[in-house]
Amino acid sequence: MRTIQLGQSKLRVSRLIYGSEPFNLKKGPDGDRNQGDKTPEQAAEILKEALELGVNVWDTSDDYGTHPHLREALNIVKRSDVFIADKSNALTEKDGWAALEFSNKSLGTDYVDIMFLHNVLNEGVDRKDSAGKPYRAGNLKERMGALGAWVEAKESGAVRATALSTHSTKVLRQVLDVPEIDIVCTTLNMAGAVIDDGTLEEHIEAIRALKEDGRGIYVIKVLHAGRLRNSAADAVRWAYQFHEIVDAWNIGMYDMNDVWSNLDMMEECLPLHSG
User: Which domains, from first to last, does the chain contain?
Assistant: First the structure.
C-alpha cells in the first residue's frame, strides 16, 4: 500500500481512504441507486480485510449512519492501526466539544484522528441532513468556534489533526489564511461536478495552492456520489493523475471488490516513487 504523510500533520496514511457511506447510504447512477444495506457486522469484516491490505483510513460523518459500522470494526482490530476521520456540522466552541464527545461515544473510542468541519460553505444556509434533521450549514467564519475546540483538543490528544471539507473553491482559498486547519478534503471528479463555485481548473489550482502551503489534501466525490459508477475505472484513473497535489483519495467502497479494483488502479497509475 502506498502511504504518505498528510501535510504537516504527524499522520502517515494510506493513499486510498475507505469512504464508508455506501455501507448505509444508497449510491449509484440516478435512477439506479442501490447499496446501503451492509450490517455493522458485515462492514466490520470488510474494513478489517481492507486494513490488512493497508487501507488504514476510515472516513465517516455524524450523518452518514456508519458510526455503528466503524465501531464494530474497531472491536476486531487494533485501534492504533487505524486513522478515523469524522465530520461534524458544529458551529460554536460548545458545539465542537459536544461533537467530539458524540464521536467518541458512538465510535467507541477515546480520540478521533482527523476531525472535520463538514462541508463548509462560502455563504451559510439552513439545511436538513440525510436523516432530515435541520441544522445550520455555516461558512468558515461561523465555524471558527468549533475549530477552536478541536485545536484545544489536540493538546490532550483527543484530536490528532484538525480538518475542513468543502465543495467551494472560494472556501479553499480562505483556508490559506487559517493555519489551524491541518487537512483539507474537497471534491474532484472528471465530470467537474459538485463544485459550488469556480471552474474545475480554478478548483484544481486552489487545491495546488493548499498543497504548496503544506496542508494535507484528500479528495472526495471521485465517483460523483456513485453517479459515475458505470465508468468507475475511467473516473478513478482520472483522479489518480493528480497524485502530485493530492495526498489521498477517499472513495466510497461497498465491498472488497471495490477495494481491490481501486488498489489495482493505484498500482497502475501512481509512479513507484510516489508516497
Answer: 3-269 (3.20.20.100)
What's the sign of the alpha-carbon dihedral 74, 78, 84, 88?
positive
CA–CA gap between residue 161 and residue 153 (Å, rounded): 9
Gap between the Cα atoms of 212 and 190, Å rounded: 23
> Could you give the 3-state DSSP secondary structure of residue 252?
strand
Per-residue pLDDT tens digits for 17-60: 999 999 999 999 888 899 999 999 999 999 999 999 999 999 99
Q: What is the bridge-based pairing of β-strands 83-88 and 57-59?
A: parallel
Nearest to 65 by CA among 86, 95, 45: 86
What are 133-188's pLDDT values in tens digits? 888 999 999 999 999 999 999 999 999 999 999 999 999 999 999 999 999 999 99
pTM as predicted: 0.96
